[in-house]
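Quick question, first post here. What does this chain look like in 3D?
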Amino acid sequence: MPIEPAETEPWLPAGWVVAWDDTGHLMAVDLMPAQPAVPDGYTVTVEDAGAVSHVTVLDAVTGKRAAKGQMARLGESVVVDRVLTEESYRRRGLGHVVMRTLVNHALDAGATLGVLGATDSGRALYETLGWKKHATLAECVYRP
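> Answer (accepted):
Ran it through. Tokens below.
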């Protein structure tokens, strides 16, 4: 939920705890067209399943998935989720490719606003792409 974790803790019922290691950041951006610069040796696919779009970056040589991400559309907004670059493919700009591809696809579908929940490491990527933090996200889990 969009609240500081320490503020949430006193309100939690028995069995619920704050997942301190999994707190994150609620981020948003006004969507703008971007040019995804796909590095040599990679291919990008976009697949739609209803209102959900999936972007996959594949290693063109091995066929392995190098990076991925998805978004769900709701009117003029999209929620980006599950953006991941596989460990052995990091530091090659593939996260940027995924995000820019998602944004362009969202714009093509008529969206104007992007929202996501970021981890600490993901926040750095999103900020380089113009996303802004609007709140801390407290994650709470049930551990009876």
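The first strand starts at residue 16 and ends at 18.
The mean pLDDT is 95.
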